[in-house]
Design brief:
94 residues; mainly alpha; 4% strand; elongated; Asp/Glu-ADT subunit C
Amino acid sequence: MERDHIKKLADLSRIKLEEEELPGIARDIESILSYVEQIKEVTDKTEVAPGLVRNVMREDALPHEGGAYTEKLLHEAPSSKNGFIRVRKIIDQG
């Protein structure tokens, strides 16, 4: 890669480069571009085993009727009132 190209890239990137850094940067950029070319040549032809692809999620549906466990939950709570679990006040709005 030519020095002028590297200087232009540095200017566009707002990176200040000293003149003595240019050869090292040029080598690094060439190495990166070479690696990118190698990656482009890779063809991944692997197939997924058919037994491994399946939906393990449940269907979207109500798991039970609304309120089916309300009484049981309220019974387990330390304190309840009018169908709600009572808790201590922790936020003072004053």
